[in-house]
């Protein structure tokens, strides 16, 4: 199992269909879970994908349109019924207060846990959350309401200690952590054993970028440059590019162009409009610009 993967709970757009659920994803980074958006039906999808509710401590809401946040009150209520006591952190545009606070007053009095709301400035690319495992940055998007994407940047892991070398030099346990963090080892006789003789380099840190909903917005390219995986909305086909402009959404071709310019390693597209019977043409259009584009689908697990 990958140390870092993205789980697609929903990848449809505003109108419900029998093919796709409303937008939601869960990032699993070494069993720590981070949710992106929480459309209607999210907690049912979590059950179906056997995602552990108690491992989720941070939820990131890209913008306050219903297909990205209508599942949030129900999920919070379920946490309360499950007896949660750990704080839940919600990172969202400041408009989240107008939406959630009246619901809390009506339905969620006396919760057994604290809900901490952190306002995100959707106009800036900035660090918005950091823990021991990763850093999360906002990505300004261009939509009808304040909206932002998110960049999840894994922190560099420690080097791998070569056990045979540690045994050979009889290195005491108290020095192992500092060696894995890059220190040399000095023997009792004063000999300096260089770190590169004692360790192997760790795997490169991974980065995932989520960009939905937005009009075609090339200014985000520097923020997602070279990421291991980019999720970009592709609501429309090129034949409906005019509609995409009117609604501040993107076509599959435009999403692929962002991926091409940013030289990302993999692209997955989603947020498909309900006007199409299937998503095959989205892939065909995207593949012409960025070959190997992945179509998002519910239940999909994408390892980085």
Give an overview in words.
By secondary structure, the chain is of the alpha/beta class. It folds into 2 domains: 4-157 and 206-303, Ribonuclease Z/Hydroxyacylglutathione hydrolase-like (Metallo-beta-lactamase, Chain A); 160-200, no CATH class. It is 26% helix and 26% strand. The chain has a 7-stranded mixed β-sheet with strand order 6-5-4-3-2-1-18. Strands 7-8-9-14-15-16-17 form a 7-stranded mixed β-sheet, with helices on one face. The protein has a two-stranded antiparallel ribbon with strand order 10-13. A hairpin with a 2-residue loop joins β2 (24-29) and β3. α10 (252-262) runs parallel beside α11. The longest helix has 12 residues, at 96-107. The radius of gyration is 22 Å and the shape is globular. The N and C termini lie close together (11 Å). The model has no long low-confidence stretch (mean pLDDT 93).
Summarize the model shown.
It is built from 11 helices and 18 strands. It is of the alpha/beta class.
Please name the defining characteristics of this protein.
18 strands; globular; 26% strand; Metallo-beta-lactamase, Chain A; 304 residues; 2 domains; seven-stranded mixed β-sheet; alpha/beta
Order of helices and strands: EEEHEHHEHEEEEEHHEEHEEHEHHEHEE
Q: Report the oligomer.
A: single chain
The residue fraction in helices comes out at 25-40%
In CATH terms, the superfamily of the largest domain is Ribonuclease Z/Hydroxyacylglutathione hydrolase-like
Q: Give the N-to-C terminal Cα separation.
A: 11 Å
Number of strands: 18
Shape: globular
Number of helical elements: 11
Return the CATH architecture of the largest domain. Answer: 4-Layer Sandwich
Report the CATH topology name of the largest domain.
Metallo-beta-lactamase, Chain A
Structural class: alpha/beta
Tally of discrete structural domains: 2
Q: Any idea of the CATH class of the largest domain?
A: Alpha Beta
Largest sheet: 7 strands, mixed
